[in-house]
């Protein structure tokens, strides 16, 4: 157990974000301006070995390509299946890095993971981990301890609370209250922090962080929610943001707003979007597995991308999907790019009814639901599958233009930042970097005429004769 018992004083109280509209403590990262992705590395083969999709060297190669495709946007990549034999293996323990992911030149997989976390920073990418604090498996090194210490939730009859079957193994619910009070929750966290540079990353993704009652302990869902908040606050006290899979809403209460900055599957109603700024809570994407959701809110307020599903090769998990770059660029340009742009604006109000709603932002920006159009001063910057959006994360002037179906001789209005620019350079976006297409393209009345091929993305920047 930790020698410092200060964690015992951490509150489990509900945080009322409506008072300040701000997080309880400032987040380490600004998730409203960060592309968060998962990268699937491995999964157990149920024979004691791993099915490896990408090792740590291959992960860096992918991260470099993604950095080129996304024009150096700030990114966080959470590694899935980094531990033991892969995804969901041997929880609640996090004590071993998967040796099958090791680089040949390193002594241990742990060394390789540390190397990856450091090297990825060169590509504007923070690498952290996808973990689970809920599940417990019988083959875990911690199983006997957790049973003996009574850290597994129970049914009313005293049997252990089974919550699912993953990788052909039964999973049981960790009791947040008992784990916290015993000191094992903070021990788990501290051991991981001491093993890997998670504090430098400043973020961790906790999957499936559900609160469930433990009838055998007479512990309610509300109590478990309270202890979940303690756990999240402890991570933050160590300088680490907790992102998670859902808002959860057990007991119909959003109890993590202002504590969790980003959720993988974000489902909010219209009122939530207008009341909660993106830098308080963002995603992620709308959870389309739910039977009731307003998918079109993703048009009005934007949604980012997951990335993981674009790379997984379901036909052969030992390989990354061939040609993933094409779809990745499409989703980045059509979803993440507008999402980032809208997150830099203040949401004002929405008028109309489905499917003809209009969202109004400051800076004279409007989003039209039916036609999937975004305008600035009544001039379009996104029309369905075509975008012409200024890159706001760079210090230099740059525009990304992309077309899903292609077009000929389309006129676009340049943003105000290009007002004094007379000519531009056009380059194609590729996973290996920019490819010059044309220099010294003259602007006429601060407009440009473009022709794009299907699935083509380009950048437009002021022409510099010294570079040509």
From TrEMBL:
Q: Fetch the InterPro entries from UniProt.
A: Endoa_GalNAc, Glyco_hydro_b
GO MF entry, a single one: endo-alpha-N-acetylgalactosaminidase activity
Q: In this protein, which residues make up the domain named Endo-alpha-N-acetylgalactosaminidase?
A: 53-247
Per its record, how is this protein called by name?
A: Endo-alpha-N-acetylgalactosaminidase domain-containing protein
Please give the Pfam families that the UniProt record associates with this protein. Answer: Glyco_hydro_101 (PF12905)
């Amino acid at each position: 157990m930790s020698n410092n018992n200060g964690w015992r004083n951490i509150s489990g109280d509900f945080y009322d974000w409506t008072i300040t509209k701000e997080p309880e403590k400032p987040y380490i990262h600004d998730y409203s301006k960060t592309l968060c992705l998962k990268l699937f590395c491995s999964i157990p083969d149920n024979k004691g070995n791993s099915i490896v999709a990408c090792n740590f060297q291959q992960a860096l190669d992918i991260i470099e390509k993604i950095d080129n495709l996304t024009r150096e946007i700030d990114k966080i990549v959470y590694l899935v299946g980094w531990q033991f034999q892969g995804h969901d293996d041997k929880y609640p323990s996090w004590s071993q890095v998967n040796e099958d992911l090791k680089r040949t030149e390193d002594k241990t997989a742990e060394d390789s993971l540390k190397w990856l976390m450091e090297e990825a920073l060169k590509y504007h990418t923070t690498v952290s981990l996808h973990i689970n604090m809920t599940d417990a498996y019988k083959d875990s090194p911690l199983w006997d301890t957790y049973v003996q210490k009574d850290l597994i939730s129970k049914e009313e009859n005293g049997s252990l609370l089974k919550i699912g079957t993953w990788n052909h193994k039964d999973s049981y619910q960790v009791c947040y209250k008992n784990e916290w009070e015993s000191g094992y929750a903070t021990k788990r966290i501290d051991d991981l922090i001491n093993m890997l540079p998670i504090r430098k990353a400043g973020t961790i993704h906790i999957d499936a962080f559900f609160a469930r009652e433990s009838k055998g302990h007479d512990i309610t869902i509300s109590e478990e929610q309270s202890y979940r908040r303690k756990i999240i606050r402890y991570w933050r006290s160590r300088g680490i943001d907790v992102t998670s899979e859902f808002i959860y809403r057990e007991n119909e209460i959003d109890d993590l707003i202002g504590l969790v900055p980003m959720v993988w599957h974000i489902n909010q109603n219209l009122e939530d979007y207008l009341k909660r700024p993106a830098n308080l809570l963002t995603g992620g994407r709308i959870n389309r597995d739910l039977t009731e959701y307003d998918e079109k809110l993703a048009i009005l307020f934007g949604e980012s991308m997951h990335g993981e599903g674009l790379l997984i090769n379901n036909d052969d998990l030992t390989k990354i999907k061939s040609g993933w770059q094409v779809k990745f660029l499409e989703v980045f340009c059509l979803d993440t790019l507008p999402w980032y742009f809208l997150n830099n604006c203040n949401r004002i109000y929405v008028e109309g009814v489905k499917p003809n709603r209009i969202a109004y932002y400051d800076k004279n920006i409007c989003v039209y639901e039916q036609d999937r159009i975004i305008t600035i001063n009544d001039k379009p910057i996104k029309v369905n599958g075509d975008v012409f959006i200024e890159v706001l994360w760079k210090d230099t002037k740059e525009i990304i233009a992309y077309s899903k179906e292609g077009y000929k001789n389309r006129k676009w209005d340049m943003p105000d930042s290009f007002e004094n620019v007379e000519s531009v350079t056009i380059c194609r976006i590729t996973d290996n970097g920019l490819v010059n297409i044309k220099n010294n393209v003259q602007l006429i009345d601060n407009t440009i005429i473009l022709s794009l091929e299907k699935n083509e993305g380009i950048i437009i920047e002021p022409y510099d004769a010294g570079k040509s």
